[in-house]
Amino acid sequence: MSSEQDLGITASKEHETGEWYSQVVQKAGLADYAPMGGFIITRPRGYALWESIQDHLDGWFKQTGVKNAYFPVFIPESYLQQEKDIVEGFDPEVAWVTHGGYDELEERLAVRPTSESIITPYIAQWVRSHRDLPLRVNQWCSVVRWEATETKPFFRTKEFLWQEGHTAHHDREDAWDETILRLDQYERLYTDVLALPTLRGRKPAHDKFPGADTTTTLEALMPDGKSVQGCTSHHLGTSFAEAFDITYVDENEDEQTAHTTSWGLSWRALGATIMTHSDDQGLVLPPTIAPKQCVIVPIWQEETRQEVLGYAEELQAELEAAGIRVHLDDRDERNPGFKFNEWELKGVPVRFEIGPNEVENEEVTVVHRPDGETTVETLDNVAETAREHLDEVYAKLYATAEQHLEENVRAAESREEILGTIGQHGGYVTTGWCGDQACETEIKDQIAAKIVMVPMDEEPIHDTCGICGEDAETTAYFAKSY
Question: Which run of H or of E encompasses 260?
Fold first, then answer.
């Protein structure tokens, strides 16, 4: 950055959310815009956040029987056509390869929009007996969907990073248990790692994954009142198994059709985390995923430089030995105020300030990134003290997000009330729903809000549909969404 003004955020989160978010992502060193429209360059600090999500999820997946694999980025057109629902669902978004070098290909190749159509045929080859089930594979990869026109890093890009798991099971019950297990793990990620409370439910039938029996989801509320689909876990039933002939011989030597699932989470989870927690000073990160959890800023005059730096280096070594990700900012060319602002912009959760007074008293001054809360702590058990402060920062972030969610779920009993509540407040509006897509369309056409989820098993809390007045089958959560 060429100056301190360039370093800072100049847009308001409340009033210019889009521009503010773009500045946070770029000025905190997470991503840049690529020369091709709809794509981004993920910088090391941004990729480190994705790696943290990978580390957590990958470990949980493997603990529950999942094995990683990798399938080609290109999918033959004939494979997509084997499952017509997939073609109908994704064809407008598919990028096609028609030439290899100067030669036209005999068959078009789709750039992977999702991988059911290439993974499922191979699961069919690998499954022969009931002893082969359940079979669970996952891949970490990128996919391309040629739909994004206005790029929002980590929220909407033509290419994005994700994981996609694919499984085959003996019966419907086992496949459903798998679907919910993965949804539970995603919810654990949002709750315990990203400090984001979510709403849990399923997509309405008209908005489920093409070919799926049930699509389950977690929805996260953003500061601007829009909802983000945080993940999906699909119970696919037997539709893909029938299309690609996934059968097995059971204990009685009878041939059975397998039941399958697929489930995925993309780097949209990062976008939701950045947008929810960050502020007008810059990036705010949960300590769980922050590349550096603590920054030590020494404050010295020339005559105290040596003792302050020596003290800071000892503190750094003790924290590192305890497994805390710490950085000592001992740059001579920058003053402490500049350093404070820079590390606030970059989202380091906790700052340790050390000057001559701290050295003399064997103390450290601790400052929390989200709210600037400042305390003075003794050097005794400093690593444990640091962990306590990191836990406090996490708790603050979660509590603030939870309060925002709780305050922005509102009930409505009529079409006018639904439109007025979303128009005035944003957030989620619950109402009774008869199950007819036409009732959603009435709201969608008026205010660009849709049903983002319905509860999975609960009885409707409204007796009648808020749009047409017929008996309610379920409760609909309407919201504008990313």
Answer: strand 259-266
pLDDT tens by residue, 290-313: 999 999 999 999 999 999 999 999
Question: Residue 199, Cβ neighbours under 10 Å: how many?
Answer: 19
Q: Which helix (H) or strand (E) holds 33?
A: strand 31-33
Q: pLDDT, tens digit, for every residue of 194-231?
A: 999 999 999 999 999 988 999 999 999 999 999 999 99
In sign, the C-alpha dihedral spanning 39, 44, 49, 51 is positive
- Residue 422 contacts residue 480 (beta carbons within 8 Å): yes
- The first and second tokens of residue 438, run together, are 């036409």
Contact 166, 418 (CB under 8 A): no
Which residue intervals of 75-115 are DSSP H helices?
A: 77-81, 84-90
Tokens of 476: 């609909």
Q: What is the pLDDT of residues 353-409, one digit of tens each?
A: 999 999 999 999 999 999 999 999 999 999 999 999 999 999 999 999 999 999 999
DSSP character for 239?
H
CB atoms within 10 A of CB 98: 9
Token match 């109908």: residue? 88
- Give, as one character, the DSSP assignment of residue 464: B
